[in-house]
Amino acid sequence: MKIENAVVFVTGANRGLGLEFAKQALALGAKKVYAGSRDPSKVTLPGVIPVKLDVNNAQDVAAAAELAGDVTLLINNAGIASVSEGLTRPGSADLLRKTLETNLFGVLAMTQAFAPVLGRNGGGALLNVLSIVSWVNSPVIPEYSITKSAAWSLTNGVRHELRKQNTQVVGLHAGYIDTDLTSGFDVEKTAPSDVVRQAYAAIEAGELEVSVDEKTRAVKQALTQGVYLIDPSTQS
């Protein structure tokens, strides 16, 4: 599908990667862009439609789907991450549950609400923002890694289900992206503009999965070759 004349809904669109998705959608000629945010007053980008949306709130999700009944492209970008002391420490289960609520169940809730919308509008596309840690677990953010692995599996499952209604389901994988979420990490980062540019190019090319940086592509290639992998964030 083309971004030009598409009707786009972006979750977590008030800042960071979500804001960049909204900006580039407008620049590419999208007919309309809905910008979901828990606090719509923080959505200040001219030309978008702010939508109150907490992906963990069933009423918000239902209201968003009713309001945005013309959507042809859903971008599940909203996500959370926390630095952790490890999976075996006390309290790790609570952090994992909290992270799963947004990164997995929030994506599922949006997908369930908008799949019929996409179907009615010809199929369209759905993009889930995943990660390099969909495939390898980082000791710095292990709970986040688990949720992204689960979200990758969810993406693959949804792709099978929505194929019959002609919906393109895309998984976007990336290493560190230069946003507020990674501000405390002294590592090589990809610019949000480059991530979004590649994401939209993949959608327009009809691709089902895209890895936006060399390290992520190397991890995916190693997986396909059955190579044992360690945390890529520790590698030079």
Automatic annotation (TrEMBL):
Gene3D superfamilies: NAD(P)-binding Rossmann-like Domain. The lineage of its organism: Bacteria, Pseudomonadati, Pseudomonadota, Betaproteobacteria, Burkholderiales. This is Short-chain dehydrogenase. Keywords: Oxidoreductase. The keyword Membrane does not apply. The keyword Membrane does not apply. It comes from the Bacteria. Pfam families: adh_short. InterPro entries: NAD(P)-bd_dom_sf (IPR036291), Sc_DH/Rdtase_CS (IPR020904), SDR_fam (IPR002347). SUPFAM superfamilies: NAD(P)-binding Rossmann-fold domains. Belongs to the short-chain dehydrogenases/reductases (SDR) family.
